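Progress note, sequence design subtask.
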């Protein structure tokens, strides 16, 4: 039996209203398969900060599918000073690559999730989300993982509240349905 895991940042588990639930709950993942840590970065996962990656790997078996949502916080922290450097971009991408390769080495089927623009009509946010997703897709492809285009599934106005960058409950339910379709083919 194939088992499904979530791994990564708050896009796995935090809803726009602050509720800690997210798509991983709506997709009925077993609690021990939910490895979403709000605020976590790809660098923290790559460095196994506090044993987060080791703990997730310990819950996995070869052949499990892992949906990874990472690098959003790496970039959010990097641009906090108003400047995004090439070194910061390279580090975020390298960190994501390290996590993917560790998961794949354990025998997991890795699917890397992109992000969606949470601010409808904001062209700067749309461009940033598109650029971020292009980088994530490239790292996934180069690392032997599949890319999962979350933005394709978050298209309805009720999927975001316009104030928070996390999807609403409706948005997370849309992601959960898409994850289930991906897994069940």
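Output:
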């Amino acid at each position: 039996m194939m088992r499904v895991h979530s791994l990564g940042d708050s896009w796995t588990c935090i809803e726009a209203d602050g509720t800690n639930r997210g798509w991983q709950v709506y997709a009925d993942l077993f609690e021990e398969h939910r490895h979403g840590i709000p605020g976590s970065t790809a660098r923290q996962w790559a460095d196994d900060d506090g044993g987060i990656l080791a703990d997730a790997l310990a819950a996995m078996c070869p052949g499990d599918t892992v949906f990874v949502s990472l690098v959003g916080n790496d970039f959010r922290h990097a641009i906090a000073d108003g400047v995004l450097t090439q070194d910061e971009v390279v580090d975020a991408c390298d960190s994501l690559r390290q996590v993917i390769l560790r998961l794949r080495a354990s025998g997991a089927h890795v699917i890397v999730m992109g992000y969606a623009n949470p601010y409808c009509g904001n062209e700067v946010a749309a461009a940033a989300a598109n650029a971020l997703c292009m980088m994530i897709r490239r790292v996934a492809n180069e690392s032997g993982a599949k890319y999962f285009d979350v933005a394709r599934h978050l298209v309805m106005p009720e999927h975001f509240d316009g104030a928070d960058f996390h999807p609403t409950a409706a948005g997370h339910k849309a992601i959960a349905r898409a994850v289930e379709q991906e897994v069940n083919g």
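The two ends are 15 Å apart (CA to CA). Work on this subtask will continue into the next period as scheduled.
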